[in-house]
Design brief:
homodimer, alpha/beta, 9-stranded mixed sheet, 8-stranded parallel sheet, 13 helices, 17 strands, elongated
Chain lengths: 382, 382
Amino acid sequence: MTLDLLDTPAAVIDIPQMEKNISLMQEHMRELGVKFRPHVKTTKCVEVVRAQIAAGARGITVSTLKEAEEFFAAGVVDILYAVGVDPSKLPRAMALKRKGCDLKLVVDNPAAAAAVVEFSRQHKADFEIWIEVDTDGHRSGITPEEDALLEVGKILRDAEIKVGGVMTHAGSSYELNAREALQELAEQERAGCVRAAQRLREIGLPCAGVSVGSTPTAIAAQNLDGVTEVRAGVYVLFDLVMHNVGVCAFDDIALSVLTTVIGHQADKGWAILDAGWMAMSRDRGTAKQSHDFGYGQPCTLDGRPLSGYILSGANQEHGILSPVQSETTDGADAQDVRTRFPIGMKLRILPNHACATGAQFPEYHALAATGELTIWRRFHGW
Amino acid sequence: MTLDLLDTPAAVIDIPQMEKNISLMQEHMRELGVKFRPHVKTTKCVEVVRAQIAAGARGITVSTLKEAEEFFAAGVVDILYAVGVDPSKLPRAMALKRKGCDLKLVVDNPAAAAAVVEFSRQHKADFEIWIEVDTDGHRSGITPEEDALLEVGKILRDAEIKVGGVMTHAGSSYELNAREALQELAEQERAGCVRAAQRLREIGLPCAGVSVGSTPTAIAAQNLDGVTEVRAGVYVLFDLVMHNVGVCAFDDIALSVLTTVIGHQADKGWAILDAGWMAMSRDRGTAKQSHDFGYGQPCTLDGRPLSGYILSGANQEHGILSPVQSETTDGADAQDVRTRFPIGMKLRILPNHACATGAQFPEYHALAATGELTIWRRFHGW
């Protein structure tokens, strides 16, 4: 099977580009002297994660217990479940631990810590807990100087629950687009997380692990003193949001959606594609960035971006390819849409957000340098 | 299994409400004297479609060949594939026809019609084609007075391809919110589609079917003279976009996402939930409507809307529940978030868009009036 014969829409991973992304990140981590624990929520795909581990990743990060179960079944043992644990999920987490999975859970509040203590007592479970630290105010975690940090630490310490470390995610990095601002945020993420670990150590918790990361801060980081590991997810494929943040170029984006032209509205300059939001996802992450790509950046079948066009609209199974209004130079361009994009023509669309677009597909079609395609299964659900 | 014990996030369908939605639409169609062909892209779920057929639906509408294959395997024979056909999908469509599926394909341009003619000749395929009509300029189709309509008709007529009818979808109805405007658009949709059929009949095409519909126009329609069937999809579950369009109330929404409170940022008045955009989808369809619900409307476990709160933000597996700023009366309300929404509390979130939210889940949990839950599988992919 080759790309031109593939049923559309299809999610295509460019394998050489993916491997380059993996290798560059791993090398950067080696230079900074930290372990790298990729976040596998981006792809939920065993073949991708095997490539990350083969390149030197030490353990993985997951966002759901389903991911933990699937990757443990595929042979990955060291797993950080990086979402604050819902107490009712503890039985399922314990089952994984008892099968031999080195699963680490996260809490960021006294009530969740107390629930872990109570459950551990009742079931003689031996969870390893990491405490989530808030270093940029964008979502979860306890800020480094807050009383609650020590409160959580003491609840776990007094119950003799193993505290493996602290972790933070400076997700507000997605809102930046300047190298210097990213470097500052990376330093803020590092310093806050190291400080939280120090405070916990002062009350007698070993807190050996100090885990930070988001793709932009991981790439921007210049010094990670006190940090033991970095996490990042979307770097493996990259996307248009990361392009706008300034941490990748079009050429670095290893995921695209293959689509076919199925119609036109010539007077509007539109070509209608069979990739709508069900294929691209509803993610409009570039809408509030410096360059709005609509639902994606169209490219030729061999991957060259079609400058001056975007996927400007999407219904469930229809995408609207149209000229970027500010870049349309004359009416003639709009009128020749039928000849430029004839019925049956295949295109590839770079996505706004690789995590969201991938989730729309049961599988990736992995494209080798030879042009050969392999199906890589992707799971979904919880 | 009961709702309070279910793993979260989960997509819950309230069966009695769904059956009421099905029954009201079917009754309305009976009164208008037309057949009803539900669009199954909303749920992609055999149990839901069986309920629609049991209530009187005649055939189904699909948005992908995968849906056609799955529902044909489940016993549905009369299927309209309502997306302009990509010529490279004709072999797959032919395989379905040859198994006995009464599959109808759609074209809206001469090139696609010519491709169908050519393929039919080469493979002795006997496709039934419907011509897509554009009655509101929002996406695909040929406008009723356009020359291309007859051009397509003649290409098919001269090749003796069966033309089953014309179809249109006034999807711009989603942008309205007044009863009168919806009634006007329903009439525009009807009149345009009937006119297109008339023009095709004048050149000798029987064009027996005249198919119209979108949930808002189907509900608003008062007279469907000349129309033979109506299509609608999201009415079966409804959602917040339809609430804003004015065609359903909160109570009519039969889909919700069950979630658990996993954290707080008390100074911001936030509760953190385990339903992020992976569960809710990235659909922000209410953002440009009269009432922006963020990523959804929180409700209690038994389904009562929590007025004054929305899901204001979402990361992949984190949702942020917060007070609607304009409705916050004092600081005290924001401060009591920990006691009002304690760790482990279950909530249900009404979605912006039932089609998009459902697509995030491999299955629905169908809730009977007794409180009993049944798993209904939902498929995805193409």
